[in-house]
């Protein structure tokens, strides 16, 4: 690494990205991409000799950017937006530039300690109970994604249960519970850790509980399993489901989980960011009954990909399931560190090597501070509220579930008896997304209803973009045959 080249080429990349962000609104949000096109534009093999960075950047501009979905576009309202920021990028640059590997305290003392500090800061900001802080006997780790975090908690829960059951054969009796609104990662995770697929229970929710789980429905499912000799292992509760933003009642579910000695995980991947605002803290009522909680700063907390906070009440449950101590990682300082009760993050996750994610989140927290972060979250929620009010005032549309965070789930109502309203809504979403690339939205299906989702959450999204989104939705509604209301 030659410092002169490093500086020149890094500046060239920053200049390139500066241009990208200045022009981002001129790109269609969704690319007009043709399957396999990029392969026809690139050579068949890697070059034998290196090429100058400006040649590489020119290819990025000509070949890569036109085929990208512009996730950072202010008119990206699909899935859950993953917001980038200046501080998130600065933190990522520092992390990538220093390129240390904090798998153990001895391998990177300050990076490990910063991670422990930053997860405690985040736990306090979102209002987690003391038991998830290092000072309260728990602790946190920064993982790459909720999916990885969930697998780690499932492994911890599984091993804890197998010890109680007295052997590995017990795995065939373990049952995992989730709702029909839980993220698919729980089913995948259960499969990965060896839970028989037939022992994954999907509990139905309904409009009556705003698509949240009820304690009764969980109790019924668990009782039936216990009666047939199965062992309840793990219950997933969500604060802000992916499809609709539904919230499960943690206290009631926690009581059920405690009664049956199940591990309770709280997945707040997206909505977790909003918990820094006191008006959302009621969603955490009962969180002290949970065993683990996760949320993704890379979704809605101005932290560039990737960054997921996982907190556990009992680090020992996690580390006894995940620790490995090969000779080649042993050294005097590791032994000292163990004696000092220091964290070796390799034992809190799947991989050994890991990036310095704490730097990124720490820079975000330091640069913006809690006050600006709360304002940022509330700004998005206000924009979503405005969009919801517009929908409610237009009789052609219905809001499918009351909005809680920054996600609005809506659809066109049938105009006449016998209308194929599902096809109508599919046509509407296609028309919104296909014509001009002015915005990008995605859908969900609940109770066999096709629903359009507008998720506000881009770092560059302002009121003008949400207004333009509403104009687009109205325009396309007319085009697909929904006559103007009001
Ligand atoms: N859980 C919820 C509620 C989500 O909305 C998502 C993604 O949108 C996930 C989990 C998966 O998160 P990740 O991509 O970090 O694994």
UniProtKB/TrEMBL annotation:
Signal peptide: none annotated. GO terms for cellular component: cytoplasm. GO terms for molecular function: carboxy-lyase activity; pyridoxal phosphate binding. Keywords: Decarboxylase, Lyase, Pyridoxal phosphate. GO terms for biological process: amino acid metabolic process; carboxylic acid metabolic process. Gene3D superfamilies: Aspartate Aminotransferase, domain 1, dopa decarboxylase, N-terminal domain, Type I PLP-dependent aspartate aminotransferase-like (Major domain). The keyword Magnesium does not apply. InterPro entries: Aromatic_deC, PyrdxlP-dep_de-COase, PyrdxlP-dep_Trfase, PyrdxlP-dep_Trfase_major, PyrdxlP-dep_Trfase_small. The modification N6-(pyridoxal phosphate)lysine is found at residue 299. Its cofactor is pyridoxal 5'-phosphate. Belongs to the group II decarboxylase family. This is Tyrosine decarboxylase. The gene is LOC123170723.
